[in-house]
Amino acid sequence: MTAPVALVAGGTRASGRAIAIALGEAGYTVYVTGRSSAAGRSEMDRPETIEETTAQIKTGFPVRVDHSDPAQVAALAERIGTEQGRLDVLVNNVWGGDMFTEWGKPLWEHSVERGLRMLHQGVDTHLITSHHLLPLLIRRPGGLVVEMTDGKAVDGEYRESVYYDLVKVSVIRLAQAQAAELRPHGTTAVAVTPGWLRSERMLEKYGATEAAWRDGTARDPHFCITESPHFVGRGVAALAADPAHDRFTGQTLSSIDLAHTYDLTDTDGTRPDFPRYFTEVMQTGRPAGDDGYR
């Protein structure tokens, strides 16, 4: 039996890497793309590479791709089609906009150039990727598109940067639009959001390591509710394996939603519920503490 095939676009680090690893563990052949590779770093200047991700996958292919370049994405789609003849899961996780975000600045003070670059990196790349890969995905029913975002509600709390807010809300709407267009082809599209993610960059910011992540609470006591990237990675892999995942099409699912649905835990055996913690603790000004939220 031919192994199912997944593309994790933006699988260099954090949730993208964890999703790629989880899909690999589930038996998928996984193509992992990104701009940071053994050949050189992207403008984010991070040390993680796509090769490091695929080294943790039994059958993984690293492909250096800039998803803002339609020609490179078209070539990727042609390669997957030629080598595999199918695509079963598309994870749109391209971002690369952190360095352009000017937090707390109103629209009229935020750099327009940096803001538009964020929109290009976080929205245009997803549109380009879906445009070229969906024809391969719909060759057979049962496919899954996962649009990775940050936050769950389109009408939720403002994210303190108009451009960042627009990117993350746009990705949710993109998942809804794809759900409508893909439904006749028996294909599911959802948006997925982690909670407070302990990415490599976030761990550095809070002076912690994954092995001793609670050290981050010294800088922010609320760091206690963070989750490893593998929490959402396991959730996406479980969703992909669910033959009835079409019941979720058009929805935005959080890592805790997926954990409850598929009885999953994080790597430490807990189940961090960031949405409930944020509402009940952080928004109300209660003292930090994850007791009862894992």
TrEMBL record:
Instruction: Spell out the Pfam families in the cross-references.
Output: adh_short (PF00106)
Superkingdom, natural source: Bacteria
Note the SUPFAM superfamilies from the entry. NAD(P)-binding Rossmann-fold domains
Q: Which PANTHER family match?
A: DEHYDROGENASE/REDUCTASE SDR FAMILY MEMBER 1, DEHYDROGENASE_REDUCTASE SDR FAMILY MEMBER 1
How is this protein named in the record? SDR family NAD(P)-dependent oxidoreductase
Q: Which organism is it from?
A: Paractinoplanes bogorensis
